[in-house]
């Protein structure tokens, strides 16, 4: 049994192309939501998204590499390259024992859309020979492994919006039980394409609000759907022995993980939040913690009518009276909802919250819904010591995942 720590982070999002810029913008309360530019959105109700507009794959990949990848793979590779560099780990010296657990919920929807159009307009012979290798979800992790040289276990854990958090949790287990020495873990997603956006719009999951500042407003009584985001968040995780031996700077320790399924509905959570409750209970049990130990929860907090009230109920059930003492915020007002990439980006948020003693705000929240009566840190974040932090991710199909990180104090 090994202790597991985080020694590197990397991310791509609307708030920046590196983790330092991202975190500065989170602390500053910046909103990355803007009018859609990836395609002509005039035919759908939702006109806003959180696009990584400044992302340039050529900064971390040569042209031959990135032109053979869908955008979701490009995001994952760029974030992973940063996370490895941040960690200072020499993968080449231990390649067989370094894994990759960087997942996606949807995969290469951009390439799917392009090639479906080609089939109908120009015939099947015009479909790209790289079509399948570019769209399948495992190619995010495969391309990362090829770029950084990691030869250990490489898994794409597809659990919709819980994918990134499940990937961090499963990497944690592999490291804790000695199957690997180190791993890249998180999520990546590039869903801001006409086909994907049209589908989410048709089921009324997306906010039609044209105001970037209030389109995503988790826990607010006027919330009317989420705002799509894109990007990747990747953690470099390793055993404490590995980190200590090479004198690595440790950002946070991973101590708990729980995952469940609602077995209830294709898209809606159980109204009582019982599936999420159990995931949080399991994470606490794994970590050997009482509920009162948790100081901060980065909530799934999608700004949808069904999610926010159910998640609030689940927090109250797990934490009892302590639910009113801990801070609960959603950073999706900053980044939009990255679907399978959300857990990776939000894992970075709780790691930095622990490291710097800062709790991000829930921006866009002005008038909490009845029953949403916790400390959601509305409007502006705050300096506050955090010893233990939790991140929740809840996905279509009833997938629930919770992870717990601990502040590193040089123990």
UniProtKB/TrEMBL annotation:
EC identifiers of the protein: 2.3.1.179
Highest taxon in the source lineage: Bacteria
GO cellular component: cytosol
Keywords: Acyltransferase, Fatty acid biosynthesis, Fatty acid metabolism, Lipid biosynthesis, Lipid metabolism, Transferase
Catalytic activity reported: a fatty acyl-[ACP] + malonyl-[ACP] + H(+) = a 3-oxoacyl-[ACP] + holo-[ACP] + CO2; (9Z)-hexadecenoyl-[ACP] + malonyl-[ACP] + H(+) = 3-oxo-(11Z)-octadecenoyl-[ACP] + holo-[ACP] + CO2
Annotated InterPro entries: 3-oxoacyl-ACP_synth-2 (IPR017568), Beta-ketoacyl_synthase (IPR000794), Ketoacyl_synth_C (IPR014031), Ketoacyl_synth_N (IPR014030), PKS_Beta-ketoAc_synthase_dom (IPR020841), Thiolase-like (IPR016039)
SUPFAM superfamilies tied to this protein: Thiolase-like
GO BP, one annotated term: fatty acid elongation
Record flagged with keyword Acyltransferase: yes
Domain Ketosynthase family 3 (KS3): from-to ranges: 1-407
Pathway(s) the chain acts in: Lipid metabolism; fatty acid biosynthesis
Broad class of enzyme this protein falls into: transferase
A GO molecular function held by the record: 3-oxoacyl-[acyl-carrier-protein] synthase activity
Any Pfam family matching the protein: ketoacyl-synt
Active site positions: 161
SMART domains assigned to the protein according to its UniProt record, in alphabetical order: PKS_KS
Biological function: Involved in the type II fatty acid elongation cycle. Catalyzes the elongation of a wide range of acyl-ACP by the addition of two carbons from malonyl-ACP to an acyl acceptor. Can efficiently catalyze the conversion of palmitoleoyl-ACP (cis-hexadec-9-enoyl-ACP) to cis-vaccenoyl-ACP (cis-octadec-11-enoyl-ACP), an essential step in the thermal regulation of fatty acid composition.
Homology family: Belongs to the thiolase-like superfamily. Beta-ketoacyl-ACP synthases family.
Descriptive protein name: 3-oxoacyl-[acyl-carrier-protein] synthase 2
Gene: fabF
């Amino acid at each position: 049994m090994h202790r597991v720590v985080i020694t590197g982070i990397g991310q791509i999002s609307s708030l920046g192309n590196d983790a330092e810029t991202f975190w500065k913008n989170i602390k500053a309360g910046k909103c990355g939501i803007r009018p859609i530019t990836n395609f002509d959105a005039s035919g759908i109700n939702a006109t806003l998204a959180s696009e990584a507009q400044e992302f340039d794959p050529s900064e971390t990949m040569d042209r031959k590499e990135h032109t053979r990848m869908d955008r979701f793979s490009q995001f994952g590779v760029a974030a992973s390259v940063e996370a490895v560099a941040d960690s200072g780990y020499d993968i080449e010296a231990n390649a067989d024992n370094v894994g990759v657990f960087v997942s996606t919920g949807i995969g290469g929807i951009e390439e799917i859309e392009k090639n479906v159009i080609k089939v109908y307009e120009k015939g099947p012979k015009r479909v790209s020979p790289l079509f399948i290798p570019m769209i399948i979800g495992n190619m995010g992790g495969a391309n990362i492994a090829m770029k950084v040289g990691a030869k250990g276990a490489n898994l794409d854990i597809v659990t919709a919006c819980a994918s990134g958090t499940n990937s961090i949790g499963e990497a944690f287990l592999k490291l804790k039980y000695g199957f690997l020495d180190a791993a890249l873990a998180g999520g990546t997603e590039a869903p801001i394409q006409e086909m994907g956006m049209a589908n989410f719009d048709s089921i009324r999951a997306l906010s039609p609000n044209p105001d970037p500042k209030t389109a995503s407003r988790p826990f607010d009584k006027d919330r009317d759907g989420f705002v799509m985001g894109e990007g990747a968040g990747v953690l470099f995780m390793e055993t404490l022995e590995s980190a200590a031996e090479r004198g690595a700077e440790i950002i946070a320790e991973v101590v708990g993980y729980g995952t469940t399924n609602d077995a209830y509905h294709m898209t809606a959570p159980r109204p009582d939040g019982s599936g999420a409750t159990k995931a949080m209970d399991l994470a606490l049990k794994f970590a050997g913690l009482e509920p009162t130990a948790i100081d901060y929860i980065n909530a799934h907090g999608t700004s949808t009518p069904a999610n926010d009230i159910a998640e609030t109920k689940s927090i109250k059930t797990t934490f009892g009276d302590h639910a009113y003492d801990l801070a609960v915020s959603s950073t999706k007002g900053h980044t939009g909802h990255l679907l399978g990439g959300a857990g990776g980006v939000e894992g970075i948020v709780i790691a930095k919250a622990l490291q710097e003693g800062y709790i991000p705000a829930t921006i866009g929240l002005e008038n909490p819904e009845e029953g949403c009566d916790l400390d959601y840190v509305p409007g502006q974040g705050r300096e506050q010591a955090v010893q233990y932090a939790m991140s929740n991710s809840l996905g279509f199909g009833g997938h629930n995942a919770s992870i717990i990180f601990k502040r590193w104090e040089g123990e």
